[in-house]
Design a protein that fits this description.
The chain has 421 residues and is an alpha/beta fold. It contains twelve helices and 14 strands.
């Protein structure tokens, strides 16, 4: 986009609709995978919009973007707010994007208040677009926020490869992210993220604002069955070592054992890659991404071990070899209690009765909170709980409610309404 194009200021609806066009296809939602050309275009719009509003735009070497409002002066502590602009394939418009743009609008309005003498800042404010939150193209998810918080080494992040072998570092360089630019803000005193719920809890409770107490844990496994390629025609059945058959049995066994013994856990087998992927060749390698989510880490451990037993049985029964390429636990997060109280009080002062709840999904706020950065996560309703789908939707009045509460929270924090303890 030409940076000279007039931007919509703090009009959230206009900037949201404008950015939602990037990567959109009729009937297919929005596809802006991390470090893709579409992601690059969205980053450019965000940077131009914020710069036109007076922000100092910088990025770190993993591509995290910071729109900095240095109103309190050099040496003052920082408050961060934001989310992510990358999406799932054929995803919805609201997931992540709304959090970045609502924070941007709130920052522009607050900056105007400060310049007009109606607010007195003690903290600087940065609006952040975190790299590869979704984990659709590169795994693990929450990449940018994990690098910033120190949980993921920078070099390991840039070395991540997508399904075609392109590294994250090379993909970022292709869209103009090749090293850090400018003075990156230090670790903030607090981080606030607005996000659509992606579930039905708020709608069923008749509430517009959710205050997140904490998140579920997640165990994620990348499992490969290795067989032997062969002709699908003449190869005798007894001689076949079919990795796809093993994966199919493994998926079915996983579903059965978890449903029978751990019915409260959320489970999925959501991605399958087969090689060589020809209709005339018995599959030699089949890789499946499995996931378990729940509140109790000990139960996740037991369920994961039961799943591994089922995977080994599938390998044994098909004459294939099992390889566990990854098996990682993301621990549950308990969000900062002081920030939670501030969000709760602020929501009530804005006329909303908030609902204390837990998030099943992970978010950048989780990565920061788990690294010791006090973080708050604010939810607004999702119609029918639909997420990662073109039909994802949040009503305008709920968007406005979230924007109002976020802006009020940031106004309080920037004026010294929080002291990390």
């Amino acid at each position: 986009m030409d940076n000279a194009v007039t931007m919509p200021g703090s009009d959230l609806t206009t900037i949201f609709n404008q950015l939602s066009l990037i990567g959109a296809r009729p009937g297919e939602g929005v596809t802006r995978l991390a470090a893709s050309a579409e992601d690059g275009a969205a980053r450019a719009v965000f940077a131009a919009w914020m710069a036109q509003g007076g922000a100092r735009i910088v990025q770190d070497a993993v591509g995290n973007q910071f729109a900095c409002f240095d109103s309190a002066g050099e040496g003052s502590p920082w408050i961060f707010a934001g989310s992510h602009l990358d999406t799932q394939p054929r995803g919805g418009r609201f997931d992540g994007t709304l959090g970045v743009l609502a924070a941007g609008c709130a920052a522009l309005d607050l900056d105007s208040e400060i310049k007009n003498g109606r607010a007195r800042p003690t903290h600087n404010l940065a609006v952040v677009n975190w790299t590869n939150e979704e984990g659709a193209r590169y795994q693990p998810s929450l990449t940018g926020s994990s690098v910033f918080s120190g949980a993921l080494p920078f070099g390991d992040a840039l070395a991540l490869r997508d399904g075609t072998g392109i590294s994250l570092g090379d993909a970022l360089a292709a869209i103009g992210v090749d090293g850090g630019t400018g003075r990156i803000p230090p670790r903030p005193e607090a981080y606030v993220e607005l996000h659509v719920e992606q579930g039905r809890t708020l709608a069923e409770a008749g509430r517009r604002i959710g205050v997140i107490e904490g998140t579920w844990a997640a165990r994620k496994m990348m499992v490969t069955w290795i067989g032997r390629a062969a002709h699908t025609g003449p190869t005798p059945m007894a001689d076949r070592r079919d990795a796809l058959l093993a994966a199919a049995q493994g998926i079915a066994a996983f579903e059965a054992v978890i449903a029978a013994n751990h019915p409260h856990l959320h489970r999925s087998a959501a991605r399958l890659v087969v090689e060589p992927n020809s209709p005339n060749v018995v599959v030699e390698r089949a890789t499946v991404w499995f996931e378990l989510r729940g509140l109790d880490v000990a139960e996740l451990d037991r369920a994961g071990e039961a799943a591994l037993v089922a995977f080994r049985a599938a390998a044994s029964g098909t004459g294939t070899r099992l390889e566990i390429a990854a098996d990682a636990l993301r621990p549950p997060a308990n969000m900062d209690s002081q920030l939670m109280a501030i969000v709760d009080e602020t929501a009530r002062s804005c006329g909303f009765e908030p609902l204390a709840m837990r998030s099943v999904a992970g978010h950048d706020a989780v990565a920061l909170q788990n690294s010791g950065i006090p973080s708050a996560l604010i939810f607004i309703p999702s119609v029918d709980g639909i997420a990662h789908h073109p039909d994802e939707f949040t009503h305008p009045e709920d968007v406005q409610a979230g924007h109002t509460v976020l802006a009020a929270v940031l106004r309080r924090l920037v004026q010294g309404g929080f002291h990390a303890g």
